[in-house]
Design goal:
This protein is of the alpha+beta class. It is built from 13 helices and 21 strands. The protein has helices spanning about 15-25, 40-45, 75-80, 80-90, 110-120, 175-180, 200-205, 240-250, 265-270, 280-285, 290-300, 310-320, 380-399; strands at about 5-10, 30-35, 55, 65, 95, 100-105, 125-130, 135-140, 140-145, 150-160, 185-190, 195, 215-220, 225-230, 235, 255-260, 325, 330, 340-345, 360-365, 370-375. Strands 1, 2, 7, 8, 9, 10 and 20 form a seven-stranded mixed beta sheet that branches. A seven-stranded antiparallel beta sheet has the order 17-16-13-14-15-12-18. The chain has a three-stranded antiparallel beta sheet with strand order 3-6-5. Helix 1 (about 15-25) runs parallel beside helix 5 (about 110-120) and helix 1 packs parallel to helix 13 (about 380-399). The longest helix is centred in the last third of the chain and has 21 residues, at about 380-399. It is elongated, with a radius of gyration of 24 Å.
Length: about 400
Amino acid sequence: MKPNHFDAIVVGAGAAGMMCAATAGKRGARVLLVDHYHKLGEKIRISGGGRCNFTNLHTTPANFLSQNPHYCRSALARYAPNDFIKLVESHQIKYHEKTLGQLFCDDSAVQIIQMLKTECDRAHVSWRMPVQVSSIKAVSSGYEVRIGDEWMSCTALVIATGGLAVPKIGATPFGYQVAEQFGLAIIPPKPALVPLAFEPESLAKFGDLSGISLDATVSCGDGEFREAVLLTHRGLSGPAILQISSYWQAGSAKDPIHVNVLPGAQPAALKDKRQSKAQLHNLLAEVLPRRFADSWCLAHQLTKPANELSDSAFNTVLEQLRDWRIKPSGTLGYNKAEVTLGGVDTRTLSSKTMAVTNQPNLYFVGEVVDVTGHLGGFNFQWAWASGHAAGIAIAERRA
C-alpha cells in the first residue's frame, strides 16, 4: 500500500471525527485524522462548564430537530448512551448524573478528549494537525486530498468538521463547502441553543433586570420546556430559552415564543389572595422575583391594590403572566450558540452508514448534518452514534 494512501481520511478531529476514526481503525482500517485547529477537541473541553455533558440517559429521536426527523433513528439505536458509558467506564472516568438524565465528568472534560485520543492511538490512527485541507478531488479509487503541502489519497472520505457555532475555537463552513462541491443540498444553517434578543419595546421595559432567573414553561411551535429562564441586558437566556431557540429558528421569524412565568399551582395561590389589600406588585412578589414583579406591573400600568381590580382585570393579569408573548429581534449569533441548526440535507445520506447515496464512499457525520439535539448531552450522543455508524461502515466495506 502506498504510504500516502489510507482506507479513510477523516476531516475534523472533534467528537464525531475521533469516534469515527477510532471505530474504523479498531476494525483494521488504515485511517488518517486531520484538523485545522491547533487544540484537539476544544469544543469538548469547553462543554458543560468544563465537565462535558457527554450524553443523556433519556436519548430518543424525539430529542432532535431535522427536516428529515426519522434519519437519526438507526444510528442512535445502534450506538446508545449505555455504549458510550461503557467506554467512559473502561477508562476509569468518574461521572455523575445531574438533572433530566444529563451525565457529566466529575473532574474535567479533558478526560473525554484524552479518552478519544487514546482510543484513536490504540487503533493506530495517524494524525495531521494543525493543517489545512485545501483541495478535494474524486478519483476512480476514491479521493485525493491536499493536506498542507502533501497530496494524500483514500478510499473513503469522512467530513466531520462541525457547524458554525463558536467560531473563536475554529468553526468554519468547510463541511458545507465540501457538500456543495459534490452537489448536496444544504438546509440553511442558523445558530441554535442560543440566547434570544428582546425587540426594542421589551428591552426598554425589562432590559435592566439582568441576572433575574424565573422558573417558567416556554413554548414555540412543537417545542415546550419547563426550566429556568434568565433575563439578560440584551434579552433572554437560560436552559428553557436555549432549548426553545432551536424551535423558534426552525419556524417563522414572525412567530412569538410563549413564556409562562406562573407554571404549576401559582395562579391558584394568587387567586386565593384575590381580595388582598396589598399592591399587586407586592402580591406577585410572593411568587416571582421582586424586581420582575415591580417592572411587570410598571410596564402594564398596574398600580392598584389587588382588591381594587375587577375579576376580569385580575384574571387578565394572570393570563398575561401565563402567556408572556415575546417576538425576539433575533439571536445573539454563533458566538453564543452551542450548536448549529440545519446543515447537510440528510435526505441525501444513508441513515445506516452516513454515506452519501449518490457519491461513493463520502460520509458526513456529527453537527455538519441537519440533525440538532436538545440541550443536555444529546448533541454529543449524536456525534458518538453517527461517528460510530460511519466507522463501522468504512471497516465493513474494506473487509
